[in-house]
Amino acid sequence: MMGNFDGIFEVLSEIKKNNTKLNYGKLRKIALSYRNSGIYPDSIHELGDNILFIASGKFEKMLIVAGSGNGSNDFEGNDFTRDGIKIKICSMNVANSKTIRKHFPYTNPVSYGDKNISMGLGDRIGLASPGHLRITAKYDVFPILAQQSIRELNLTGRNYGEVLSDAVWAVFQEGYTYGFGADGDHLKTPEEVRMALDCGFTMITLDCSEHIDNKAAEYSEPVLNEMYDRLPAAEREVLEKKYLSGMIQLKTGLNLNFEGYDFKKTVFVYLKAIKFTISIFNDLIKNCGRKIDFEMSIDETLTSTSPEAHYFVASELIAGGVKISSLAPRFCGEFQKGIDYRGDKVRFEKEFTVHAGIAGHFGYKISVHSGSDKFSVFPVVGKKTNDRYHLKTAGTSWLEAVRVIAVKNPELFRRMYSFAAQNLNEAKKYYYIFTETNMVPDAKLIKDQDLHKLLSIEESRQAMHVTYGLILTAKNADGTSMFRDEFFKTMYENEELYYAFLKRHIGKHLKYLHVPRRLL
Ligand code: ZN
């Protein structure tokens, strides 16, 4: 048997002593009084005559199915009987998560629909979601627990099936019934979109960066005129009627004015991305049989998105039949990983107000990417959108895991930290951050009990933030993992501390965003 489940049998025989039938309320009461049973009290569920719950073994958590009623056969696992008590010990894998989803509908991801505030809470290590739920349950926010880009999958060696399974187990463990979503983030091809949909993801974030022609912004007027004249006459006529026949007044009180040369630039920078998005929506999203939150992201461009460009893209998508749930423009200033906003906050507020006004006019949400830790602009995000937006975070929850290591396993932290500094240039190939190798503070002179303070320094945060994939996949010469096994062991032994750190840190986000408390 994996782990030591003596405590579980003790609890179960305690129930049996008094009453032969297993019962949710009794088990919960006893599980709470036996603090070392390893049973997660909120994970206790009834399924026919069986009781299901999650318990921690010595090295990993398991799903326990107690009883032999109908339904226990649906799970993959090993049967054990002691003193007439029958239990099945099941691994918390993808297959068993699908059985959980079948029997407990609330553990399936769903579209956020008309929920006003939604938040992406990517969990790169599959351990963070219970901590996320313990704080988001208290606020009026819809959590997108499973949210990974293909880049993140490649860097952590996971797939969408596993990412969703980890979220499902977290929801089951916490008994969280308010609903959650799953976002295939920064998908670039039809194949990637199809894969995320096949895995049951409920939100698709289409990354159009490969179809945006940044060069067109620099073409001279004669070149643009020539390109424009090559468009079919009927297409030109429609465009001119829509955009060049005077001031455009939005429902939200804004006015936009397209001018000839700039208009042509906008057309050619975004035209291919618009057509690509329309085809993805019509071919894959529209008839997929369930409600999908569809986001178009144009945030990975060279310059910030102008109001006219934002309006043009949205208006053309909608004319093409696309139902947009959210759109991610590129804002002025810098939204770097894991640190606060860098840039002119006055200008940000002004421009963000316009973007929010365009989104409000069309009825979709503004989506803020790399949204973690942007405390100085969070109040603007809440206020200017009338508390209707999507905000994505991911790596900041990995940094809270690193904080657990700093506190509980300083020796491992020191090794991970110096590895991160040494390999920063490799990670910088795919993440844009301001931190250079020589800017990362030296940890040698810092006492063990102060190591966690490094995680309040921007340069250290960024170095640890972007190197997660390298750290988790690094191997010693003999093929053993350099950090991974010890990292997960320390995390497993300090799970509650991780949840507490996440509650505090994500809670700080919710507070700065002024997310209202959930009314129970
Ligand atoms: Zn993004």
Please tag this protein with its features.
520 residues; alpha/beta; 8-stranded parallel β-barrel; binds zinc ion
Write structural notes for this entry.
44% of the residues lie in helices and 14% in strands. It has 520 residues and is α/β, with parallel strands linked by helices. It has an eight-stranded parallel beta barrel with strand order 6-7-8-9-12-13-14-15, surrounded by seven helices. Helix 7 links the parallel strand 8 and strand 9 (203-207). It starts with 5 loop residues before the first helix and ends in an 8-residue tail after the last helix. The model has no long low-confidence stretch (mean pLDDT 93). The structure holds zinc ion. Zinc ion binds next to loops.
Summarize the structure.
By secondary structure, the chain is of the alpha/beta class. It has helices spanning 6-18, 24-33, 94-103, 129-136, 150-156, 160-174, 190-198, 221-229, 233-243, 260-285, 307-319, 345-362, 378-384, 395-408, 410-422, 424-427, 458-466, 468-473, 484-493, 495-512; strands spanning 45-47, 50-56, 61-66, 78-82, 85-91, 117-121, 142-149, 181-187, 203-207, 248-249, 255-256, 293-297, 326-328, 365-368, 389-393. Helix 1 (6-18) crosses helix 2 (24-33) and helix 3 crosses helix 6 (160-174).
